[in-house]
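call fold(seq) -> C-alpha cells
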Amino acid sequence: MSTVVAWLYGLYYILLDWKLGLFGWGISVGFATTANKYYYQTLEPGFGSITTQQFVHYAVAIHIASWLAQFYGHGIHEKRAPALLDNLLQALVLAPFFVVFEVAFALGFRKDMEKNMNSKAGIRVRDFKSAQKAAAAGGGKKAE
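ret:
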C-alpha cells in the first residue's frame, strides 16, 4: 500500500512540476521501496532479534517523534502553527514537495522560479501586514 501511495505522490508531483517532480517521485518511491524491503526482511528467520510487531512499534514511535519535532520547530522557532492546522491536504501532500523545492533552491537549481516565488511571497506578506495595521487602527478587527 505504501508503494502505491508513494507512486501517486510522485505522479502528482510530476504533474505539478515535471523537473522537480521527477526528483520528488524518485525520493518518495525510493523511501517506500527501502522501507518495504527492510520490513519484509524482518519477517525472515535469522534476520535479527526484532519482530514484526517491534518493527511496527518503532515505526509508529519515529512517526510520532517526527510530528512532535515539527510542532516544536514551528512553535518555538517559527512562532507559527504548522500547515497541518490550516490545511490537511497541504500538510500531508504538498509539504514534502515544498522540501524538494527548498533543497533544489539551496543547490542553485530553478533560480528563476525561486525569484518569482519570493517576489510573490513578499507582495503577499506586505499586503497582509498592511491589512493587519488597517484592522488594528480600525477597531481591533483581525485581518484574514
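The chain has two domains: 2-109, 111-144.
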